[in-house]
Amino acid sequence: MMRILLASPRGFCAGVNRAIETLREALRKFGRPMYVYHEIVHNRWVVEEFQAKGAVFVDTLEEVPVGSCLMYSAHGVSPEVREKAAEMGLRTIDATCPLVARIHAQARQFAEEGLEILLLGHRGHDEIVGIMGEVPERIQILSSVEDARKISVPNPEKVACLTQTTFSIEEMRRILAVLQERFPKLRQPPQGSICYATSNRQQAVRELASQAERVLVVGSPNSSNSRRLQELARQQGVEAYLLDGAEELREEWLDGVETVLITAGASAPETVVRSILAFLREKYHAEVETVEVCRESLQFPIPDLSEKKCS
């Protein structure tokens, strides 16, 4: 009989909940189509659900008809996008996660202080693109320790560091150690730069992975925080797989396995987790034990969606 350790906390964070509820309420108030700049969150199930309800996800403003209503995703956007949207007469709703918005504000502050900003994150990720757009002439992106060793700055005494909210905590610490040695006056990332939910989900994997023979991470391939959970489990010496749903499970992953740890990225719906658990119960007679590492209570109110805000 298989034993399943179900990590808690897992799944939706406060920022994802806020973005999803904002889009749901906007569709109710303003109807379809509701244009969204990039995927509202990085999860196939969430995107497909909203597409069926009339959301149209776009990657460029040229895809949005003039005068339409446009929502910014949880990952945030650059000032350039906001300015262009205003020029086009688009009516905008901002679903940016407040924690991401805080990094945008910190980037502007560091730039105003004349600091060169080293941004820890993954090139091309929606969140990084948005932050980079705040002060592109002052920001350089680092993704690895090797980057930290090679990076050069105009003035080594005026350097600050920021991080993508879903970056690996371990990788951040390794990179910061190198940067601190190279730039002794480095301004460290503000406390809480890595999202509380990212930290908590990584901590759960860190504590529980050694008790399992396999780790299953529920999340879409383009979810940065989900991929970090898979990487972290493998760093703990346990084979881990990222899957979007029960249909992606492979028997060879679980052959001879008695204990499985299951977690979910911050953009993965609990309904998908439950469908995977149901499959494992039926096929392997699995027993599920929820293991709580910490509790989360943070909530973010959705933005004001009164008629005057989007009409």
**Shape call:** flat
Helix content: 25-40%
Strand content: 15-25%
Stretches where pLDDT is under 50 for at least 5 consecutive residues are none
Instruction: Give the end-to-end Cα distance, rounded to a whole number of Å.
Output: 58 Å
Quickly give the structural class. alpha/beta
* Counted beta strands: 12
Largest sheet: 5 strands, parallel
Structure description:
The chain has 311 residues and is α/β, with parallel strands linked by helices. The chain is built from 11 helices and 12 strands. It has helices at 14-30, 44-53, 79-87, 98-112, 126-132, 145-150, 169-182, 196-208, 224-235, 251-254, 270-284, and strands at residues 3-8, 34-37, 55-58, 69-72, 91-94, 116-120, 139-142, 159-163, 214-218, 239-243, 259-264, 287-292. The strands form 3 sheets. It has a 5-stranded parallel β-sheet with strand order 10-9-11-1-12, sandwiched between helices. Helix 8 (196-208) runs parallel beside helix 9. The protein is flat, with a radius of gyration of 21 Å.
